[in-house]
Specification:
Layout (H helix, E strand, L loop, with lengths): L1 E4 L1 H7 L3 E3 L9 H11 L1 H6 L7 E4 L2 E3 L10 E5 L6
Parallel strand pairs: 1-5
Antiparallel strand pairs: 1-2, 3-4, 3-5
């Protein structure tokens, strides 16, 4: 699985992208976030405002209940504003 991080999420995690193999217990985006938080404190900080973070699975907006697998590309980014 490829995970991409944007904006302040990228700054907290310290990288713009990473590739991981999901444990069998990770089935949804919410599971993925909980897994990342359990692996390293930098993720805990990055996902403090979890309710503000937008998610895309394979370039389509998704929710934390979306089911995922190792072939997916996940993107985490803050709300987009325009002007």
């Amino acid at each position: 699985m490829i995970i991409k991080y944007f904006s302040w999420i990228r700054e907290h995690v310290g990288k713009s992208e990473e590739e991981i193999n999901l444990p069998e217990s990770v089935i949804t985006i919410d599971d993925l976030i909980n897994y990342l938080i359990s692996e390293n404190d930098v993720y805990k900080i990055a996902f403090l405002k979890r309710d503000l973070i937008k998610i895309a699975v394979n370039k389509s907006y998704s929710s934390t209940s979306t089911k995922i697998n190792n072939k997916d590309e996940i993107a985490f980014f803050p709300p987009v504003t325009g002007g």
